[in-house]
Amino acid sequence: MSDTLVFIPAWNEEQNIGAVIEELHSELPEADVLVVDDDNTAAVARGNGAEVLSLGANRGLPIGIASGYHWALDHGYDYCGRVDADGQHPAAELERLLTRVRDGGCDVAVGSRFVSGEGYEPYRYLPSPARRFGTALLRRAMGLVLRRPFADATSGLYAVNAKALPLLAEPFRTEAPEVEALLRLSDAGLRVDEVPVRMEPRASGVSKLRGRKALKVAATVIGTLVAARFLRARRSN
Q: I need a surface site. Which of 19, 141, 196, 234 has the fewest CB within 10 A?
């Protein structure tokens, strides 16, 4: 068994999942690949050489994410990566994040569209005005709660070590699992690095975060951060 698991939460991504798995096998041949499936993606995933954890029904992204980390924890992996099933997260970028964690630079590396660095120019992504406004609000709120800048708090591109797995395997209580994960990691004192990456457009299909659902998630994110700040203030008094 490899010491590294890469898992992919999937919901109705049978058009994209095969290419995502193939790219992971090519860029990270030593890693085991798990698809956390809550729909009809399982057959395609198995056909492309991935292990499948089938949840049997659409139980939502927060449960899918926690289930992937729980699998890594239960099976004794030292390192774990997460990519989305829609083809937006290049496997080569995940490899960079895993190398950073393996080398001891941090406990968790999060791929960011919005921070810059060598070879990653500023403003390489230009979201719509509405999304820019929402991102700016979230960035300010994250800064207040974490007491440090964090530009891409909803990124789903992660690499983590074994110290982070127990925290991330616990069920998420909100519809903002990435934000909740950052709060847990910060409270536990783990080192989290935000690393510039390139992301691709969705390979096919449409995003599930549209319309009312997108507004609901945005409200949940802000509520999660407000609640976290309130709890921290109570603890310090």
A: 234
17-27 and 91-102 helices, crossing angle to 10°: 40
Measuring CA to CA, how many Å separate 54 from each of 31, 69, 161, 210?
20, 14, 24, 25
The structure tokens listed for 188 are 């536990």
How far is 172 from 56, CA to CA, in rounded Å?
19
Cα(221)–Cα(178) distance, rounded to whole angstroms?
9
Burial string for 77-86 (b: 16+ CB within 10 Å, else e) reads bebbbbbbbb
User: Do residues 179 and 158 touch, judged by C-beta distance below 8 A?
Assistant: no
156-183 pLDDT, tens digit per residue, is 999 999 999 999 999 998 888 999 999 9
Q: What is the pTM of this model?
A: 0.87
CB 54 within 8 A of CB 9: no
Q: How far apart are CA 15 and CA 12, in angstroms?
A: 8
Q: What is the pLDDT of residue 218?
A: 63
Helix (H) or strand (E) holding 199: none
Question: What pLDDT score does 203 carry?
Answer: 60
- Regions of the chain with pLDDT less than 70: 38-40, 57, 202-220, 222, 228-237
Query: Which tokens is 41 given?
Result: 């993606």
